[in-house]
Amino acid sequence: MRIEQHPVLQFDRGEKVTFSYNGQDVEGYTTETIAAALHAAGIRKLGTSPELHRPRGLFCAIGNCSSCFMTVNGEPNVRICVTRVEPGMTVEEQIGKGEIHYD
To answer: Which residues pair with 84 in a beta bridge?
Structure first.
């Protein structure tokens, strides 16, 4: 769900692009964060808690917590609440602390 019109605020959406989330194509805009694009696509679960594996969603939305850590283009522990959408990027749900894969 996106706010399309607002009585006071004006939105500069930027360019509409597609990126991959867990192998699924998701549309977003270049001026919004990955978390906002996922939320607009109806994806609310961003990960699970480390010990009890309970679902986690967006918490602080300003980059201070670790609730939104995901692997973006192979790089783990990216805070998607402050990282902007880019065309063709690959975003994957991160399990645990994340792992760096060396080629």
So the answer is: 33
Beta carbons of 48 and 94 less than 8 angstroms apart? no
> Among positive and negative, which fits the CA dihedral 77, 21, 4, 11?
positive
Q: How many Å apart are CA 47 and CA 29, to the nearest integer?
A: 22
- Residue 70's closest CA among 43, 36, 46, 39? 46
Confidence (pTM): 0.85
Per-residue pLDDT of the chain (103 residues; tens, 9 = 90+): 777 788 898 878 889 999 999 999 999 999 999 999 999 999 999 888 878 888 888 888 888 888 889 999 999 999 999 999 999 999 999 887 777 776 6
Cα dihedral 21/27/33/39 (nearest 10): -80
